[in-house]
Design a protein that fits this description.
It is globular and about 50 Å long. It has 2 domains: about 40 residues, no CATH class; about 50 residues, no CATH class. The protein has 5 helices and 2 strands. Helix content is about 35%, strand content about 5%. By secondary structure, it is mainly α. A two-stranded antiparallel ribbon has the order 1-2.
Length: about 100
């Protein structure tokens, strides 16, 4: 938290209860963090082949405002979180510098 505050960089924490241990509920609140949502993870030994042919997709590097907006909108829909919240995170041009990159399909 201190690093990102000092560097004036946006950030968020994604953590599971097993990572946070016994203080999973109290620790984030004690640090001034708020829970914004819950997700269910899935694990499999093997993925079943597609039941139908997969569509062709165009893959684009996220390198401009339109790409950041597309990535934000896709993640908001996929994870059922607030579009405004995701855009606040992902639309920041300062986030997309140096070694951070992404792709939209």
């Amino acid at each position: 938290m201190a690093y990102f505050r000092r560097e004036n960089q946006p950030w968020f924490l994604a953590a599971g209860e097993t990572w946070l241990g016994d203080g999973a509920q109290e620790t984030p609140a004690a640090l001034g963090l708020a829970k914004t949502g819950s997700r269910v993870g899935m694990v499999t030994e093997q993925v079943t082949p597609p039941a139908r042919p997969l569509p062709e997709v165009e893959i684009r590097l996220v390198d401009d405002e339109a790409g950041r907006r597309g990535l934000s909108d896709l993640n908001a829909a996929a994870y059922d979180v607030s579009l405004d919240w995701v855009r606040d995170l992902a639309m920041s041009e300062s986030l997309w510098k140096d070694s951070l990159y992404g792709y939209n399909a």
